[in-house]
Recover the amino acids of this structure.
């Protein structure tokens, strides 16, 4: 199975991508709205088709990307029936199975952090995605959204700790950089519910956390009760069909650039020798070698979007970072550089 663990630094949220290596069908657990472009780029680069976008619960610290994935890809969204969320395709019950290609996961209801929490378990019981019910050496707070320390005790003991000891546990968050644990580890070392802890020990611990409410709770919870659907329609301010790579580079196809040449400013960041060499250059492109770009940013016109160009698209990818750092936001990398430009027989010249 293809597996990726993704991270949102702003909320310390883990997003999980699972896919069948044979059929390329995929599913995503606990998306973050602001990370859609990054995660969609990974899906595209791995040649995957997302069937399901599932949440473990109604999040209080970030807005889910479930609605956005539905709108952009046609994937079906799902969350616990007990969460009472609008704008979702599937209201999930205990034991529901979600197949993606030759792989599948099963939902287990694990309330306690909220009344509508789920843990997703792979079919071979080797991996479990516990959301905020069981964290690495911790457990999610139980003081709002129908939370209950007693119910959480039961959920962890009956639905998670009954999994095989070797089962890998992947939480919804971690604030100390930890990425994965196991059932055996948490049974032994979790300071809240591990070892010889009794229910009264766990409940006493949880009821005395005295945590401040999440910073974004007043925004995140109302939005997530609508599946992440924004109050206002999304406005596409893009000046062209930009593709954001998983590496974070804005790229644009060379054939589109050729058709819109007069609407763009072309910036070649190769050396002077390359500019007039065998690959030639695009007529009218401004030449500023990459090594000089930071010191010569004032020479780059900003009236039109800037297309950075090099031989293969690697140096020009760095150029887009320099441009953005310099306040030139409307910029993109020419995908494939002059090699791809020549391969497509697009117009260029060796000398102006």
């Amino acid at each position: 199975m293809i597996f990726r663990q993704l991270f949102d630094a702003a909320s310390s949220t883990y997003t999980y991508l699972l896919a069948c290596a044979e059929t390329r069908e995929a599913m995503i657990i606990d998306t973050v709205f602001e990370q859609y472009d990054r995660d969609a780029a990974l899906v595209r680069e791995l040649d995957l088709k997302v069937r399901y976008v599932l949440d473990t619960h109604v999040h209080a610290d970030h807005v889910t990307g479930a609605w956005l994935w539905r709108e952009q890809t046609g994937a079906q969204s799902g969350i616990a029936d007990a969460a009472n969320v609008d704008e979702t395709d599937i209201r999930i019950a205990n034991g529901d199975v979600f197949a993606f290609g030759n792989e599948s996961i099963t939902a287990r209801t694990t309330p306690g952090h909220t009344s509508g929490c789920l843990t997703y378990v792979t079919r071979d019981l080797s991996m479990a995605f516990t959301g905020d019910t069981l964290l690495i050496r911790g457990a999610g707070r139980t003081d709002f959204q129908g939370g209950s320390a007693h119910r959480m005790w039961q959920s962890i003991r009956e639905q998670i700790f009954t999994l095989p000891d070797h089962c890998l546990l992947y939480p919804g968050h971690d604030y100390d950089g930890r990425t994965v644990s196991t059932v055996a580890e948490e049974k032994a070392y979790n300071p809240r519910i591990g070892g010889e802890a009794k229910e009264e020990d766990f409940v006493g611990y949880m009821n005395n956390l005295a945590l401040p409410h999440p910073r974004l709770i007043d925004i995140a919870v109302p939005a997530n009760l609508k599946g992440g659907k924004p109050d206002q329609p999304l406005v596409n301010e893009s000046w062209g069909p930009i593709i954001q790579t998983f590496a974070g580079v804005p790229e644009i196809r060379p054939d589109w650039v050729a058709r819109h040449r007069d609407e763009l400013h072309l910036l070649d960041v190769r050396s002077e020798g390359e500019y007039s060499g065998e690959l030639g250059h695009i007529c009218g492109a401004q030449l500023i070698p990459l090594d000089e770009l930071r010191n010569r940013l004032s020479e780059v016109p900003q009236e039109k979007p800037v297309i950075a160009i090099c031989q293969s698209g690697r140096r020009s990818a760095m150029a887009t970072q320099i441009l953005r750092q310099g306040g030139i936001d409307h910029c993109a990398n020419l995908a494939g550089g002059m090699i791809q430009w020549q391969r497509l027989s697009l117009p260029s010249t060796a000398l102006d």
